[in-house]
Write a structure and sequence with these properties.
This protein is 79% helix and 0% strand. By secondary structure, it is mostly helical.
């Protein structure tokens, strides 16, 4: 089996997951026929989604009536963002297909060159590592469905209506999550860690054997062994070749990382921005229902809101951590960082690192307080206007 075939086989689970939920049939190693099928499938998915939106009114509109303006506004923001998830993600997938094919080919070439330098690639391990995000994805979907199903059954909606609710309001989150996982997976496939291990293995100085002691040992060996100079010359030439190859691979991996960032930059910008907005609106919704204890059954509502805040917050941390880890591995190659620094951004607007997490937390708290002050929600207002209380259960 050729290296190219082995590489493509090992990323097949990721491609299958993208093909089912987004645009994997268009982006990856496909011929023109499969690409046309993928484009048709993506267009059909968009048409079907908006047709169902037009035919069915979502069950959550029941709770929108007779609510304060801020509550209605936050709900409308959530709905419009939700509707845009599915369509925007598919459009971004169609736009980035050339860039994805470019960086996968580039990454494949780099890994093949590293394999020739006897750097362990462990492609079989990479194959099984894909199942961790797949299992995490399945767990998130199950928990998402469970948290919503409880309160939907309380409202006595039919199973068909619940199914369409999940498709229209939750399926877009699944599509968005698949692309987020794909971005992080490709970032971790850039083998800077293995390349740095090769260079560390070539070092002759350690904490216990610093440079000045190493020089004295070299002089002693030169006087003791006449053939040591020949062996040392061969060894140094071999190391020099490896260093040159490592430098070339390092530069190519940096280019590959930039190409991945360019390919998924629009998606990550959209994903993090919407997650930030939804954290604020969900936190405000949680505050309102915590203040007004008769609006919904409290336990189910609290669980649902806390779940969504945790999920959206974890997604931002997940993406930021993956980018930070990749940049940290690059910094081990100090000279290359000075000449060719790398940072991951969302279309140049803000950096994807731990500062993003701190910024999101601070901004969420700020806007959350602003919404509380502007909303001026009182318990009496909700009790008088509410059309669904615990007495209706």
């Amino acid at each position: 089996m050729s290296f190219s075939t082995k590489f493509r086989r090992n990323v097949k689970p990721l491609i299958i997951m993208n093909s089912i939920f987004t645009t994997g049939l268009v982006e990856y190693f496909v011929d023109d026929k499969i690409s046309k099928i993928g484009t048709t499938y993506a267009c059909f998915s968009i048409v079907l989604y908006f047709s169902l939106i037009h035919l069915f009114s979502l069950p959550t509109t029941t709770f929108k009536e007779n609510q304060p303006f801020i509550t209605i506004l936050t709900y409308q923001i959530y709905v419009y963002i939700d509707y845009s998830f599915h369509v925007v993600t598919i459009i971004f997938g169609l736009l980035r297909r050339k860039k994805v094919r470019s960086f996968t080919s580039q990454l494949e070439t780099c890994i093949q060159t590293m394999d020739q330098l006897n750097i362990p690639m462990n492609l079989s391990t990479c194959f099984w590592q894909q199942y961790y995000p797949v299992l995490s994805f399945i767990f998130i979907i199950i928990s998402m469905i469970s948290s919503d199903y409880l309160w939907l059954k309380l409202l006595k909606f039919s199973y068909l209506y619940i199914f369409f609710f999940f498709y229209l309001e939750r399926y877009p989150f699944m599509v968005l999550l698949v692309v987020d996982i794909t971005f992080v997976y490709w970032m971790r496939q850039i083998k800077f860690g293995q390349l740095n291990e090769l260079l560390k293995g070539m070092l002759t100085t350690t904490i216990h054997s610093p440079q000045h002691k190493r020089v004295l040992c070299m002089r002693n060996r030169m006087s003791d062994s006449p053939s040591s100079g020949i062996h040392r010359t061969d060894k140094s030439n071999e190391d020099l070749i490896k260093i040159r190859k490592a430098k070339e691979i390092h530069l190519e991996l940096i280019k590959c990382a930039r190409n991945i960032n360019d390919a998924y930059g629009l998606h990550i910008l959209f994903s993090i921005t919407t997650a930030f907005i939804l954290i604020i609106t969900t936190a405000y919704d949680f505050y309102c229902h915590f203040l007004i204890k008769y609006y919904y059954p409290r336990l189910f509502l609290y669980i649902t809101n806390l779940y969504w805040i945790s999920y959206l917050g974890f997604k931002i941390i997940f993406v930021s951590h993956a980018c930070t880890e990749t940049v940290t591995e690059i910094r081990d190659f100090t000279l290359q960082v000075i000449q060719n620094p790398l940072s991951f951004t969302t279309c140049g607007l803000f950096d994807l690192d731990y500062t993003l997490i701190r910024g999101v937390i601070g901004t969420v708290i700020t806007y959350f307080v602003i919404l509380i002050q502007v909303g001026n929600v009182s318990m009496q207002t909700f009790v008088e206007n509410s059309t669904f209380t615990t007495n209706d259960l």
